[in-house]
Amino acid sequence: MVRPKFVHAEIFGGICYNPLLFLSQMKLKRTSGRSHFFGLVLVLLGFAVIAEPVIGQDATPTPSPSPVATPTPARGGTQELNAEQIVESTVIIYGLGAGRQVLDQIRRTTFERGKLRTRNQAGTMDSTNYQRWVIRGENSAKDKVRWEQELPAARYSLMHVDERIFGVFNDSVFTPQDTAIRSFEQSMFRGIDAMLRYKENESKIELLGREKHLGVEYFVLNVTDKKDRTTKYFISVRTFRVMMLEYEDLGVKYKRKFYDYRYAQGTLVPYRTVLWADDVEVEEASVGTITFGQKVDEGMFLVG
Question: pTM score > 0.70 for this model?
Fold first, then answer.
């Protein structure tokens, strides 16, 4: 059996060539209970905050309509956003102002390399290197993903191809344990991308309200995919970044937090993530290098 040839993409690190980068460097001052940053997102989306704008008004005066009661703002002088407006605002932020169009174009492929710490059966943390390749599909289920862990004397890979998951140990294909399969699925379908691509995945979104944790206010919403997997996302009211998510699987409550956000090729990426299971830290991943849009050999997803 011939082992697939790996093609390593050139790493650009965190370089951003997007001309809208200056938006992220603006000083964000709080005005009338909301930030200029928050107002910018609403302008990009075309949402009316105070009143609907008049477009194409005739020069000839017309009788004024009867007064209509204005909804009382719920918070800080601004009307509440609905679930779709919040998620679409977040998509814009992660695409550095251009949103879904930039994400689809730049992230058509991904190559990522980093370090992974996982808790073993003895209760201590093991540290290994990992690599991940992705060829983006029309939705998350159509993505081709290869995740590879470097062991002292071998390479262990998990792959998602044609909507099935299998493993490769050196050159041998095997069926992973159920726990490994479920963990791999959670990383694919319960991450930030699953929310950013809710339309492509035909997922349902539901706004649960707002919550404060350690003084930080979040929009809280559920995303439920076509397989009835529900994930709760905590989105910063100030920055529209996903800071945390929660879900339950087989009676275990999981929580994943996102840290060290940086711009990589014009898109927003958390360079450090931590996963807890029932309040016990079980995984920490730190991105070393990540690049998007480079050629990835389809042969990497073939075995035999």
Answer: yes
